[in-house]
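# step 3/5: fold
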Amino acid sequence: MAEKSIYLASRSPRRRDLLRQIGVAFELILLREVPRYPADFDETPLAGEVPDDYVLRIASEKAQAAVTTLRTRRLAVRPVLAADTTVVCDEAILGKPADTADAIRMLGLLAGRMHRVLTAVAVAGPVDDAPQVRVAESRVWFRDLAADEIRRYTASGEPADKAGGYAVQGRAAAFITRIEGSYSGIMGLPLAETAELLRSHGIIVP
């Protein structure tokens, strides 16, 4: 029997919109609602961890933690989806900026060159030993950016809570000259890979 909905272990409004775009019904499952978790998830890279391994690990661990939460709260049995996105420049991980100065630093690194965007999506069933994980890699080219452009952009508030300090679907679209790969993956959820995983867990995706 096909499942009708899933749990989404993410606070990202972009991921919610993307799931709705492909007709997937979902409920949020947030780790912060459980008292023993002081934050959603520790996304600190391990010492020497390469970006490709990092996104795989974080997405997988988020899904596993969400399944644990599902069991603890005795919620209805459904597949759980989690994801992680990181921007990679010179093989360095650029996560969410800590503050405005950090966002300015990141955008300065990205200006006038190509960077990679990695998004891993993990889907776990409540009785699975380990989540199934897929990774989408996209390449993004920025034009040269003047210092005042970067300052105006960061002043807009858009870089907050965005990997690499920018949103491809927002004002930063004016910075991008070329994209190779998954546009939805750059937004935070690669839809082709997501649909493949969901189908393998009995979710009907148009």
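# step 4/5: annotate
Residues 34-38 have pLDDT under 50 and may be disordered.
# step 5/5: archive (pending)
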